[in-house]
Structures are given as structure tokens and as C-alpha cells.
Amino acid sequence: MNHRGTDPKNKSPYREYLLGGCIAVIAFLAIIPIYIRWENQISAKAGSLSPADSTAEEYSGTQDFSAADSSEPVSSEDDSAAVDIPATETEGSAPTDPSVTSEPVDTESDPYDFSRPVPESDPVDIDYFDDAVIIGNSRAEGLILFNELSNTTAFTHNGLTVSTVFTTPLVDVDGERISAVDALRQTEFTKVYLMFGINEVGWESDDIFIQRYQKLIDEIKSINPEADIYVHSIFPVSAKVNSNSEFLRNKKIRRYNKRIQAMAEENRLYYLDAGERMFNRKDGCLPDNVSTDGIHLKVAYYKQWMDYLLRHTVGQKEGAANPDEL
Question: Please, which residues bridge with residue 171 across strands?
């Protein structure tokens, strides 16, 4: 009689195959949830970087846009929306309009129209800036470098932002380097010119930018409540930079400028818009012939910018005309 079907030697291979298959299935089922959890963690980290984790990625403080092909862009923007990496040091969620001041203002007693740029007036002498402080980025550096402002206090730095102005050690005081804000606390001044924004267009939103700018404004007011504060618009970039850069887009710059102007009105600051006067083009771009790299100005236009500032001041002389009538 044939007993092949019940011979243990013949049943052993099938048992081994069955046991191996079961082990493989169990191992596969165990790996699946581990893989899914790992993949979700990676996706969450890449897609929703929180402000607290973005210190290294924020494109500010260590670099400035010195060329049209600036490396390591942190954001991209099309014509519909901005997709940027958040700025650092978020202090809670940004309010809908963080530029609104907490204290009410009496607009009836001051006829000056803070909703518009400073109007043109008779030019002042260059010594008008002797008791002024200019704080800003590399564009502000060029303004200082190529004009006769040797008596003007300047806290400017390549890549400086409304956030790093509190932290970057750039001013030498008695052999110690301190931040621009710390240096301002030790400075006598009657007016402050603020020139920020080009390095901040890679931030998550204009709300975060204005929130940080508001913090700087509040600090300056606490240091010298009587000082006149001028805030400057952001110059546009050239058509080439606008087309090639992932984050330097004139549409976003215009949006930032609207927020700066609104902040100026809310805080009763003097808003300057030299770009509108100097580079008023239908396409909204910086003309190619005025810039070295599509971002920074040539020497002649830094001088033209200075001329604009000399012709757009308020309360510059005793007995001067009412600013609203200039």
C-alpha cells in the first residue's frame, strides 16, 4: 500500500513553507503601521514648520539679497498666494491687523494726514540729519555710504531685519558689539528713519512682518516718545529678478508696502515712498539702468534718493508751514 501522503518526511517541506509564509505576513503587517507613522512625521515636519523650529531656515539676518540669483530661497510665490517659511520668535498668533495701536489718538487736534506719504516741501540742508538715526538693511547702507552723512548716526547692516535689529551685534560701543536697538538706547536723537522689508519678503506672511515692525516702533517710542519716526517703503526689484526669484516678487513687495503705510497711519508715523517718485513705471519694476543687480541702486540713484529725503520732511524748521499745507 502506498503511504506517501502520511509519511512525515514528505509532510515536512509543506509545513516549513506554511510556517515561513505566516512569519512573512505577520512581519509585513507589523511594519505597515510603523512606516505610516514615520511617513506622517516627515510630511508634517516638511509641510508645517512652526515658527519655533524655523530659526535656521529663516532667510534673514545672515544674508541679504545682494544678487538676483540669491541662494537658498525659503519661499515661493505665484500670482495668487505666498508660500513662505515663518519668521522666528513668533509671540502668539498674529492678529488680523497687528499695526493697530492700543491707545486711542486724537485726530482732531492734529491736522496732518498720516494716511498719505510725506508731501514735498522746500529742501532742507544736509545737517537736518545730524540728529537723526537711520536704521536698516544694505539698501540703507548704500544711502549712508554714497552721501554726505558723516554726522548722521547709522545702524545699518547687510541682511538686517525688523527681527534681528534686536539681536544682531553690529554696533561697537566701548569695545563691545551690541544690537541696533541697544545702541539706540544710548543715543540722543530727535528723528529716526527706518528702512526695512526686502529681507523679510521671504517670511510666512505680511502679518508676521508687521507684528515685528510694530514691536520695533513700540520700542523706539519707549526710548524717545518725542522723536519723529519715518518709515520707508520697500523699493521694487527689476523685472528680471521678479521673474527669476522664487520669493522676491514685486506683487508681494506692494502688499508689504500697503501694510507699512497702514501701520504708519495707525501709529501716526511719517511714511516715505521714494520708489513711487523715482521709479514710477507701469510694470511696477525697478528700471534696469538704475541698479547694479536688480535690487541695489547705482551711486547716482542713492544720491537721488537722498535728494528725495531732503525734500520730504515735516516740522524741519521753526515756524515752518503746517505739514498738511505743504
Answer: 178
